[in-house]
Specification:
By secondary structure, this protein is mostly helical. It has helices at 2-48, 52-60, 67-80, 85-95, 104-116, 122-169. It contains 6 helices and no strands. Helix 5 (104-116) runs antiparallel to helix 6 (122-169).
Length: 170
């Protein structure tokens, strides 16, 4: 019976380390997806010169949840109301994007980008999006380095914590 408890403690500690590692992986994937969407928005602005609501509708068809719902929300709200895009964007981020494993800095940066969209000239908007992509690239690189450093660390810490708990309990 003690052996089974010992094994359960070790496994649960190891799984806890993997849980924290998975959170970092999800944030990494979310930021990469957001970067891809911003690059697609730049392409649509540069080549189609369509309205922001049409761009979001077109791009939403190519996305998966929750990005698809976010983009459809932006389209519906900008198309059906005359609301300010910055307010619509912020509500959309809170409703759909906040579910992802992004930290407060990521959300704040995304909200600040939305505050600048739709109210300025196309060239300035493209430059702002490119600047945001540059900041995203820095975050993505930082997370990638963090993953390389902490993968083994999280797994071993989880394993060792499980061992310590099982030794204390036995």
């Amino acid at each position: 019976m003690k052996l089974i408890g010992f094994i359960i403690c070790i496994c649960s500690g190891f799984l806890m380390g993997n849980y924290f590692l998975e959170n970092i992986n999800k944030r990494y994937a979310a930021l990469k997806n957001i970067r891809q969407i911003m690059a697609a928005i730049i392409g649509e602005i540069e080549y189609t010169r369509g309205s922001i609501s049409d761009i979001f509708l077109k791009l939403s068809r190519k996305q998966q949840s929750p990005y698809k719902e976010f983009m459809e929300y932006i389209y519906k709200e900008t198309y059906s109301t005359n609301g300010k895009l910055s307010h619509i964007w912020t509500r959309g981020v809170e409703k759909y994007i906040r579910k992802l494993n992004l930290n407060e800095k990521d959300i704040e940066l995304l909200n600040s980008l939305g505050g600048e969209m739709g109210s300025i000239g196309l060239n300035v908007e493209i430059e702002n999006l490119k600047k945001y992509i540059g900041e995203l690239d820095e975050q993505i690189l930082h997370i990638k380095e963090e993953l390389q450093r902490k993968t083994k660390l999280y797994r071993m810490l989880g394993f060792l914590c499980g061992m310590a708990i099982s030794v204390i309990l036995v």
